Amino acid sequence: MSMMKVANELVAGCRENRELENLDKLYSPDAVSIEAADFSGQGRETKGVEGIKQKHAWFGNQVEILDGNVSDPYPHGDDRFAVIFEMKAKNRETGKVEDMKEVAVYHVDGGKIVREEFFYPMDE
Description:
Structural class: alpha+beta
């Protein structure tokens, strides 16, 4: 699958709530996910699709997405692309609602996502 096909399918899956299905479809089994900070207590780096699925589950347990927008992909050469995610999220524990925004950069090799990196503002 070309990088742009991967990028477009990832975006479509996010918009259509098919993120978990796309993990098996679009990601290399040994893909790596890197967060800007360690919010889960498990470190910034997650290795493997199964670990990334667990990270998605952890996030879903922490927040309820009330509204959101997923940008079209921004290609960078033939091996990576970026996507901007904007969300209104409610913290399940506190009930606090906040706006969240992040940029994700995806690296593609052999028609699969092999690395994803997330960038977002953080309190100092």
